[in-house]
Amino acid sequence: MSAAEAHSDPTEVEPPSRWGALGRRERIGLVLLLLLAIGLRVGVALQFEAHHPQANAPVIDERSYVEWGARIAAEGEWLGDEVFFQEPLYPYFIGAVYSVFGEGLTTLRLLQCVLGGLTTFLLWRLGRRAFGRLEGWIAAAAFAVYPPALLLPCLLLKPNLFLPIFAGFLLLLLGNVDREAQAGAAGRTRYRWLGGGVLGGLGALLRGNQLILLPVFALWPLLRGGVRGLARSWRASFAFLVGVGLVLAPVMMRNGYVGGVYALTTSGAGTNVYGGNNADNPWGVATEFDWVRGIPKYEADDWRREAERRLGFDLDPGRVSQYWMDQVVQSMKADPGLHARIFWNKLRLAWNGYEVPDNHHLGWDARYVSLLRLPWPDFHLFGGLGLAGLVLCALRRRLNGPRLELALTFVAYTGTLVLTVMSMRARLPLVVALFPFTGYFVAELVRSWKAGGGQRLVLPLVLGLIGIGITTAPTFDAETRAQDLADRDHNLVVTWLARGEELDEASALAESLARRYPRSARLQTLLADTEWRRGRRALAAGETEAGQALVRAALARLQPVAAAEGVSPRERSRAYRVAAYIQVDLEDWPKAERFFRRAREFAGDDLELRVAHAQTLLECAQRTKEVDPENEQASQQRTEAVRMLQDVQREAPGSLEARAAFTLLERLPDAQ
Prior knowledge:
mainly alpha, 29 helices, single chain
């Protein structure tokens, strides 16, 4: 390649496109592209709602966000009463949607389909802004059919809102590159940086790792302007920080007002970092810990309680976060090689085609959504070509201006994933910065072919093969991937049991899982739960012998789980919980009371457990009193039950558990 060719750039960076400046064919093409993006997402969402067994039963984070948003809409709970543990903007978005359109998951999902179309449009703009027309079309088209992005609107998760905000944020900042060199454009530039700061702050209220990047973005004008442009650059940096402050300062003040901890966004930074950087999690993926229940409303307290247990004294939310952060630092100092391997594994996953599951598994969900089973190109292709495009851009000396900053954003965002936890939804924002390079790579192939191919095609083809090799290189073995699917089967059984539906299917699936993983305490408890429910059904149908046999089998299965060494307190608590409900059915109130008490040694703040435990105490007191009216134990049991029910009413007014507590207390007029 000649020196002239090396420095020439056939892709002309375009100014922000205006609708009137587009040709008729481009306008029609853009409309069709957006209709494709939104239409595919609507189709996936409708199939998801029609066929997916968990469509109307959000779990884990999704359930937390929906319940939080519903409280905001119904009760006007805009301020709240605790320091945020989860990033709050998405639940507030749900609350606003519910306030305007009424509660309904279908409406929410359809709006998220539109947000997916908006992200597609912004990627079209971003690709054109950084490279040119063709690159913008390819980047947007790739996102329009990208399988995780097609599934995303079905899921009640933060990336639905974060992706368009992040894309708009990058478009604003990259749009400043040429403007800052224009005379008389300083005022407009500062407004753009102010807007960028606002979007950056909003992004930090959705993804904690965005908070890490904000100081880097604040330095961009200073690094870009050099010494000569220092006066104008610091004003742009100041405008950016003002924009961030306009968003985050009220949240920080709110956290300080309600909880005494002036956290910029949440108090969960330390736990998030620990979650992806500990010796028990060599791949740094989303996982469960023995001391944390998979129920977000208890998650913050579980982390706090474990930290307090280890330290031996009480902690506020800020010190809880600091404790878990310190654990990571100490572990890194003690075994830097281990953490280097964890970082390397997370980097491999960040650039690998396997979509690491957390709340959802793309392949498992596709069982119920036929559109997702079509052979769409995925990260194996788009990601591999994007990595190749980034390197090709650098080797051909075109990594400058907005392209350089887009590349730095991609690298920096990858770094935040390596520092925290890897999953499909955590990686989704990465494609916003990467797909324009996918567009560049494909456009370069086309241009090289039209120019006669030959030697000019060799480098792109080699880099393309290397990029796809990186995204297709093996990471998890077959057993680990099978375990990922089995975890979703487990969650499906839990969903069926919670709804009281599909008992035979739930039992068969639980038995299959227990045979595959016979040493799993969690699956043994789940199987016992299904056996007990089948026994109840048989007894209700008059099949006494079969019903009693199933109930006995369930109790026998739970006994070793509760007694075995090495079983985590969380799993032991689950086993005691199921055993307690079985004893309630058998009306053996003393045994039920003992099992509830043991279950509450780990889950003492569980509202449902507290109400059920109080009920068994009242039953025990009643029977003790019938035998011996003067027995002091009956009075103590009754007093403990009343206090427990009153605490539930005070702590969770309006909840189902509070209403159940009220009903029980109504039977005891002197306890009101």
